[in-house]
């Protein structure tokens, strides 16, 4: 029995037979679930690489001029295992770039976006499956360009992840490495744009019957808004990268000024405008999916509907709109006109309102809930905590007069690590633990998961709090040897302790690696269709893992995503949740009416 | 699902021009076509942002410069690029005719329109090359400071898009000839791309050559 | 006469030696207190939920009018009480003090210095006795900026290669030096002594070594030093040495 709407949806998305050849099935696959796994692997590998680079930075700040154990012997042998200033600038540059573009982005957006969007909205695949495949292979090419840059003469990129010219032109960083990395940024931008077009179109066009925008799981809202931001602003970064490549390789003068400029030269600040027009939305590109995941996982494990779902949705929309109008706060110290600076300050302060509203809605969701402290929930709650710290410390930096002192210090580093690194990373871990049974059909080990959680949560908090304290005391970022400065010498112990916490944090991640492979290849029982007892379509309308065509029958959605602890549902089914497409015994009308009220 | 839906209307042989309902029926879009149409709009929006960023760069560089063009560098010609504006407009018109003809099932007419569009595109590139060679000979090299930078970067980047469109239109023109045929979506979407490239050119002509 | 830069005690803000630095510090302390309260309240509510309602039956509610009003009210309180307060104070501070170059330029004893940043040092230029830049008695120093106590100091910054950022932790100010443009910075020191000048913007492998010393002198000591240095500069002037003549005519920003 299927309704008319379902029949129409079935006709628009007929079931295709799964591919049979190895290559089509696992390598050049157009199946969004396989592409998601490809992104996951690519992202996790680079996460390890970026994390290793972070450990090198921490080593340098704990023990400057001392040979790095193990890694130094492997990669820095000609220098006796010691990190030199030139190597150091490449380490922090590539650490930032890899983490943002090649680790967190593929996991949060590439993996979860691809895997979840069709499943959560009830579609058989993405709108453009082939484009999806191209998006992954373009992304892989960009990763290879980054890896290749390490082999170049003079090493990899060294101008910081923000690649400010003229330092990032031939004036400051000659050599192929920087060129390859800028090219990689361009290529990964192309990949992101392709993915974004696909995501936006899919959500607009492929939602299952009954899945109105106000019934979308919040994860979908996060990923969709992120995709919109990506589609609009990544091309701006593309332009900036393109012009920078022209400056580097064809002698143009967009960003070169000063002694090496011809006829007055271009404008270095122009690059900063282009970069941050992209770069500030990018912050939200990474946090919106995280908010979305939390917006679902918190009610799921609190067994309670999300508090004021519509408020959270509109807050996310407002953040998305505002995110394009605040970028100037990265440039307060460039000599921008006071009026412009004050405008940017105003919008930056305003953006704290919707962000705070989202957090308070989570708190209200937890209030009088029946919380299940499974690993995904622990990670989700930790995300609220670290995002709170990250968001609140942003108040200092939104403000021009405090920025006079704090700009470009470790305080900035601590702030954006709490938001982009801690919140996005822990939210990504929430997602991994939560959707692992759906992606691979098995549940990750809870005991190892909890051990991993405590290492990560405590470790991340201590490490980034250490950065905040160092910055508060005035330590600038990106110093090869901070202790050249007399006023920083008192922070030697702080930096060293922060490094020890960082090493522990890094070591703790191997619990996750162990858990991951043990579950994947070990003897673990199948997780079953809906191990967490939650409501959204991927759990309630298909198996784990889902078949190639996702749904045997395209579901018809009858209620919102967080229908928990509804007494009427309990009376009819004996359960405390009702799936989004579940038809309740009897008419189910009273339950629907209760859900609406 | 680009290019998976080959529309074959049931009454393909009836002259649609005489039956308005039939014409409307043939022009209506399938679900897949709408999806790819939406995707194309988002793509073009995305790409428009990229060009907008380039124009922004142009504006900033120009506002900063004390003299434009710098006294020792040649001014840009207006006539040939102006002619090119006409050429690209003609090309867009030909493609528009082709899209409509193709939607109504007139394959040969569509193929001619697409071919004509591609030919105009080639003419555009040839004229653009004349402009480049002329300026190069007059001593304007890409390394000659910001004025030369923005001129070469913007025109070359646009020309690259013309090349892409040109190749696609050419390929479609060949494929659209009966009996092979091509999908309605492919023609319509490449048509949209081509109009987009045309609109960017007009903006570029006004901003870079005229102002 | 003066002491070399000394290490700071503890982990707080470096000691403040400027006339207006306390404005920054006060805002920082206010913000710190405000976010601590916000954080504590939110964390307490969450922990209370964890402990108190653990295992109990969940309340079935998508949000009532009251609970939504509570959320909106809390956001409004923070927005107006904290953000609004910050905005108003910062606007006033920036206009009256930190970006008020009009007042600094008009002040009779103001000291003008041109700073040229390059990889990896700070060159400073004083106008000498004639009060004009680009003349024979210009005093030029490297990684050594001296200013008198108690009068506004105006720096105009330029860079020849990449972007640098002049950062005075003890005076709570900072300003980028950007190739191709001239930016400016004003401050007023209140305590004689030697303090550090740091580069805050990554500017290449030796960014960490781009350290200089700011010496705050008593007014007479500064005058004496400048006069002697200007006399030396005039004697040592070499018109052939174009490299040394990087100064520019003092830029007037206000009409």
Please explain how this structure is put together:
The complex is a heterotrimer of chains A (597), B (211) and C (255). Helix content of chain A is 65%, strand content 0%. Chain A is mostly helical. In chain A, helix 12 (352-366) runs antiparallel to helix 13 (375-398). Chain B has six helices and no strands. In chain B, helix 2 (31-64) packs parallel to helix 6 (184-210) and helix 3 (79-103) packs antiparallel against helix 4. Chain B is elongated. The model of chain B is unreliable at 1-11 (pLDDT under 50). Helices cover 35% and strands 23% of the residues of chain C. In chain C, the strands form two sheets. A five-stranded mixed sheet of chain C has the order 3-2-1-5-8. A five-stranded mixed sheet of chain C has the order 4-10-9-6-7. In chain C, a hairpin with a 4-residue loop joins strand 6 and strand 7. The mean pLDDT of chain C is 92. Classes of the chains: A mainly alpha (597), B mainly alpha (211), C alpha+beta (255). Chains in contact: A-B, A-C.
Structure keywords:
heterotrimer, A: mainly alpha, 65% helix, globular, B: mainly alpha, 6 helices
Concise summary:
The complex is a heterotrimer of chains A (597), B (211) and C (255). Chain A is an all-alpha fold. Chain A contains 20 helices and no strands.
Q: Which class best fits the helix and strand makeup of chain C?
A: alpha+beta
Query: Structural class, from secondary structure content of chain B?
Result: mainly alpha
How far do the termini of chain C sit from each other? 41 Å
Give the spatial strand order of the biggest sheet of chain C.
Answer: 3-2-1-5-8
Can you name the CATH architecture of chain C? Sandwich
Radius of gyration of chain C: 25 Å
**Gyration radius of chain B, rounded:** 20 Å
Tell me the CATH topology of chain C: Immunoglobulin-like
Total beta strand runs of chain B: 0
**Superfamily (CATH H level) name of chain C:** Cupredoxins -  blue copper proteins
How much helical structure, as a percent, in the residues of chain B? over 70%
List the helices and strands and how they pair.
The complex is a heterotrimer of chains A (about 600), B (about 210) and C (about 260).
Chain A: H1 4-12, H2 22-27, H3 32-62, H4 71-75, H5 85-121, H6 129-149, H7 176-205, H8 218-249, H9 268-302, H10 309-323, H11 338-350, H12 352-366, H13 375-398, H14 400-406, H15 410-440, H16 446-472, H17 492-521, H18 537-540, H19 567-573, H20 589-596
Chain B: H1 20-27, H2 31-64, H3 79-103, H4 107-137, H5 146-176, H6 184-210
Chain C: H1 21-52, H2 65-98, H3 101-106, E1 111-118, E2 121-126, E3 139-142, E4 144-148, E5 153-159, E6 164-168, E7 173-177, E8 183-187, E9 193-199, E10 212-217, H4 219-236
Parallel strand pairs in C: 1-5, 4-10
Antiparallel strand pairs in C: 1-2, 2-3, 5-8, 6-7, 6-9, 9-10
């Amino acid at each position: 029995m299927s309704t008319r709407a379902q029949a129409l949806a079935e006709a628009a998305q007929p079931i295709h037979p799964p591919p049979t050849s190895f290559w089509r099935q696992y390598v050049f696959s157009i199946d969004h679930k396989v592409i998601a796994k490809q992104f996951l692997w690519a992202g996790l590998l680079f996460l390890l690489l970026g994390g290793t680079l972070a450990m090198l930075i921490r080593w340098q700040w704990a023990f400057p001029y001392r040979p790095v154990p193990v890694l130094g012997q492997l990669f820095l042998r000609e220098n006796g295992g010691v990190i030199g200033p030139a190597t150091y600038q490449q380490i922090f540059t590539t650490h930032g770039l890899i983490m943002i573009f090649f680790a967190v982005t593929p996991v949060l957006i590439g993996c979860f976006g691809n895997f979840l969007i069709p499943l959560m909205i009830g579609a058989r695949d993405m709108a453009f499956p082939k484009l999806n495949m191209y998006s992954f292979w373009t992304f892989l090419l960009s990763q290879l360009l980054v890896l290749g840059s390490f082999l170049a003469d003079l090493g990899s990129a060294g101008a910081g992840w923000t690649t400010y010219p003229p330092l990032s032109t031939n004036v400051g960083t000659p050599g192929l490495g920087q060129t390859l990395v800028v090219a990689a940024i361009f290529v990964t931008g192309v990949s992101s744009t392709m993915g974004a077009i696909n995501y936006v179109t899919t959500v607009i066009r492929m939602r299952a019957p009954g899945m109105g925008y106000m019934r979308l799981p919040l994860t979908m809202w996060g990923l969709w808004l992120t995709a919109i931001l990506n589609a609009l602003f990544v091309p701006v970064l593309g332009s900036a990268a393109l012009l920078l490549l022209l400056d580097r390789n064809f002698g143009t003068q967009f960003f070169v000024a000063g002694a090496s400029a011809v006829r007055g030269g271009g404008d270095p600040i122009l690059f900063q405008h282009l970069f941050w027009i992209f770069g500030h939305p990018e912050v939200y590109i990474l946090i919106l999916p995280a908010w979305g995941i939390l917006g679902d996982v918190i009610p799921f494990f609190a067994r309670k509907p999300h508090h004021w779902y519509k408020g959270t949705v509109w807050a996310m929309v407002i953040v998305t709109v505002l995110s394009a109008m605040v970028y100037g706060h990265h440039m307060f110290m460039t000599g921008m006109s006071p009026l412009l600076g004050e405008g940017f300050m105003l919008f930056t302060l305003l953006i704290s309102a919707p962000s705070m509203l989202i957090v308070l809605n989570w708190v209200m969701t937890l209030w009088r809930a029946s919380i299940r402290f499974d690993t995904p929930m622990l990670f989700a709650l930790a995300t609220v905590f670290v995002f709170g710290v990250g968001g609140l410390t942003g108040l200092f930096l939104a403000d021009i007069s405090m920025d006079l002192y704090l700009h470009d210090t470790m305080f900035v580093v601590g702030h954006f690590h709490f938001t982009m690194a801690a919140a996005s990373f822990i939210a990504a871990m929430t997602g991994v633990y939560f959707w692992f049974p759906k992606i691979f059909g098995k549940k990750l080990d809870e005991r190892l998961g909890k051990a991993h959680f405590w290492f990560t949560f405590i470790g991340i908090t201590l490490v980034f709090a250490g950065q905040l304290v160092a910055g508060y005391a005035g330590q600038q970022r990106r110093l090869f040897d901070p202790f050249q400065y007399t006023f920083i010498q008192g922070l030697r112990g702080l930096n060293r302790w922060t490094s020890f916490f960082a090493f522990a944090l890094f070591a703790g991640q191997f619990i996750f690696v162990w858990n991951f492979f043990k579950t994947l290849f070990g003897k673990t029982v199948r997780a079953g269709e809906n191990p967490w007892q939650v409501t959204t379509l991927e759990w309630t309308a298909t198996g784990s893992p889902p078949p190639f065509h996702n749904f045997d029958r395209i579901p018809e959605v009858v209620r919102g995503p967080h229908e928990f602890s509804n007494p009427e549902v309990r009376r009819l089914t004996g359960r405390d949740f009702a799936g989004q497409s579940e038809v309740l015994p009897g008419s189910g009308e009273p339950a629907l009416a209760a859900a609406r009220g | 699902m680009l290019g998976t839906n080959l529309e074959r209307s049931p009454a393909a042989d009836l002259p649609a021009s005489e039956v308005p309902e039939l014409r409307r029926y043939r022009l209506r879009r399938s679900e897949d076509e709408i999806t790819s149409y939406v995707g194309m709009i988002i793509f073009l929006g995305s790409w428009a942002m990229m060009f907008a960023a380039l124009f922004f760069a142009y504006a900033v560089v120009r506002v900063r410069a004390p003299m434009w063009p710098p006294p020792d560098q040649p001014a840009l010609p207006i006539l040939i690029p102006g002619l090119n504006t006409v050429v690209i407009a003609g090309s867009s018109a030909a493609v528009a005719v082709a899209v409509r003809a193709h939607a109504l099932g007139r394959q040969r007419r569509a193929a001619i329109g697409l071919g004509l569009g591609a030919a105009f595109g080639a003419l555009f590139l040839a004229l653009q090359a004349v402009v480049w060679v002329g300026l190069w000979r007059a001593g304007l090299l890409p390394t000659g400071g910001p004025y030369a930078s923005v001129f070469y970067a913007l025109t070359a980047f646009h020309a690259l898009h013309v090349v892409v469109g040109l190749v696609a239109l050419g390929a479609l023109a060949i494929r659209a000839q009966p009996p092979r045929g091509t999908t309605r979506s492919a023609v319509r979407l490449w048509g949209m791309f081509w109009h987009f490239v045309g609109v960017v050119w007009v903006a570029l002509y006004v901003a870079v050559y005229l102002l | 006469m003066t002491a070399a830069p000394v290490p700071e005690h503890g982990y707080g803000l470096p000691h403040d030696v400027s006339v207006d630095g306390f404005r920054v510090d006060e805002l920082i302390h206010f913000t710190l207190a405000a976010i601590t309260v916000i954080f504590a309240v939110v964390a307490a509510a969450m922990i209370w939920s964890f402990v108190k309602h653990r295992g109990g039956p969940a309340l079935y509610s998508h949000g009532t009018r009251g609970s939504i009003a509570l959320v909106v009210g809390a956001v409004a309180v923070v927005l107006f009480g904290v953000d609004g307060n910050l905005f108003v104070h910062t606007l006033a501070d920036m206009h009256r003090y930190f970006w008020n170059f009009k007042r600094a330029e008009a002040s009779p004893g103001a000291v003008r210095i041109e700073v040229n940043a390059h990889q990896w040092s700070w060159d400073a230029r004083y106008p000498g006795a004639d009060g004009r830049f680009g003349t024979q008695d210009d005093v030029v120093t490297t990684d050594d900026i001296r200013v008198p106590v108690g009068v506004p100091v105006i720096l105009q910054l330029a860079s020849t290669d990449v972007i640098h950022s002049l950062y005075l932790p003890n005076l709570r100010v900072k300003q980028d030096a950007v190739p191709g443009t001239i930016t400016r910075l004003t401050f007023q020191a209140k305590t004689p002594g030697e303090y550090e000048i740091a580069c805050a913007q990554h500017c290449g492998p030796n960014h960490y070594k781009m350290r200089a010393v700011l010496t705050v002198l008593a007014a007479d000591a500064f005058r004496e030093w400048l006069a002697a240095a200007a006399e030396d500069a005039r004697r040592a002037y070499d018109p052939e040495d174009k490299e040394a003549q990087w100064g520019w005519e003092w830029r007037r920003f206000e009409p």
